[in-house]
Amino acid sequence: MLNVLFGLLNRIWTIITSFFYGFILAYIINIPCDALQKLIEKCKLKFIAKRKKLLSFILIVIIIILIIFLILYFVIPAIHASIVLFIEGIPGYYARTQEFLDGLNNSETAARLGLDLSLDGILTALQETAQDFTLESPLDYLSSSFNAIFGGFLTVVSAIYFLIEKDNVKLFICRQLKIFFSGKIYDTVTKYGGKLDKNCKQYIKTQTIDGLILGTVATIELIIMRSPFALVLGIMLGIINYIPYFGSIIGSLIAIVIVAFTQGITMAAIATAVLLVTQQIDGNIIQPKLMSGSFKLSPLLSGHDNVMPAAQSIYFYAAGLNRRSMERIRQVPRSGIFL
Q1: Where exactly are the structural domains of the chain?
Q2: Local confidence pLDDT in tens for the 339 residues of the chain
Q3: Cα–Cα distance between 327 and 314 in angstroms, integer?
Q4: Are 251 and 319 spatial neighbours (Cβ–Cβ below 8 Å)?
Q5: How many CB atoms lie within 10 A of CB 84?
Q6: For 311, left (φ over 0), alpha (ψ -120 to 50), or beta?
Q7: Cβ proximity of 22 and 159 under 8 Å
Q8: How far, rounded to the nearest angstrom, does the alpha carbon of residue 203 sit from its chain's CA centroid?
Q9: Distance between CA 261 and CA 93 in Å, rounded?
Q10: Could you give the C-alpha distances from 35 to 26, 64, 68, in angstroms and in order?
Q11: C-alpha pair distances (Å), 157 with each of 10, 54, 165, 176, 193
């Protein structure tokens, strides 16, 4: 009886979360959809201008299908080829790593500390740690896979619904707000809610542009360094740029580690310097320009005049993130609400 109840609650939760993810997806897709509506609205043909909502939705669907096609035709094969290449090079990576560890073991510091590192020992320790995690049974795996497929389908369907009925959804939300709030409180909530909505959309737009720039530049740099994983690493750096605070740090570290394994320590050091310079140009020139231009913030609010202590400056610069970038992320879109 309890298993049936928990299964029912799990299914209900899956439906609720799918609608929530669908709302988020629709909110993101609505950003370019609104931009297309504004362009279509400028058309002199009234037949086209009156159907701006339908035409913008159709164009967005076509663009999404085209993006999916390009990903399946170009990106997925590149990722597959990179994975195959990485697997084929594992013996070489193993030997190179063991050689590096042997050099550490022969150093004076290792002799003083009594260290005796070996790759086999590290792999054995990781294997013992992995044994603590129990694998799902085939039935549980099939059940979770079905729930994921069902949830994904509901997310897409709900996103389409929210996009088509966005005006009615907005009207419904306003009616609900009027029930709980009245007078000046309602006006204040709708005013700042509208500003928050506008600034969130601008933030997503600017981060997307910045991610495209950063990913493209990083891909070109890694191609020049003859990295066999240049395209995959460039895409990863562009996508992970959405993560606040430490996204660029994590992406740069992953790229440097892969370059170290595949091309050696010397190329890893060069990649570290190149990515460091790229991150600083992005954090000090490109991001401030995008942020201040989109949100019309003053240099003070966008973080240009912050003074960093020497120790923090060295740390953030070495990590590929400076405090000004962190302040901009933290202040946007919140700071723009009150302007």
Answers
A1: 1-103+147-180, 207-339
A2: 666 677 777 778 878 888 899 999 989 988 888 888 888 888 777 777 777 888 888 888 899 899 889 888 888 888 888 888 888 888 887 777 777 777 777 766 666 666 666 666 666 766 666 555 555 556 666 667 777 788 888 888 888 888 888 888 888 888 888 888 877 888 888 888 888 888 888 888 888 888 899 999 999 999 999 988 888 899 989 888 888 777 788 888 999 988 888 888 889 999 999 999 998 888 888 888 887 655 555 444 444 333 333 334 434 444 444 444 444 444 444 444 444
A3: 17
A4: no
A5: 10
A6: alpha
A7: yes
A8: 13
A9: 6
A10: 14, 15, 21
A11: 20, 17, 12, 24, 26
Q: How far apart are CA 258 and CA 233, in angstroms?
A: 9
Positive or negative torsion for Cα 233, 235, 236, 242:
positive
First to last CA, the chain: 56
Distance CA 236, CA 267 (A): 19
Q: Tell me how many degrees the CA angle 6-10-14 measures, rounded to the nearest 5.
A: 170
Angle at 168 between CA 164 and CA 171, to 5 degrees: 150
Q: Per this entry, what is the length of the chain? A: 339
Distance (Å, rounded) from C-alpha 180 to C-alpha 171? 15
114 φ, ψ (degrees, to nearest 5): 70, 30
Predicted TM-score of the model (pTM):
0.68
Which residue is associated with the tokens 């609205």? 41
Q: What are phi and psi for residue 55, nearest 5 degrees?
A: -65, -40
What is the torsional sign of CA 240, 233, 282, 320?
positive
Q: Is 322 exposed, middle or buried (0-12, 13-18, 19+ CB in 10 A)?
A: buried
Q: What CA–CA distance (Å, rounded) separates 199 from 170? A: 17
Q: Which two tokens stand for residue 22?
A: 């669908």
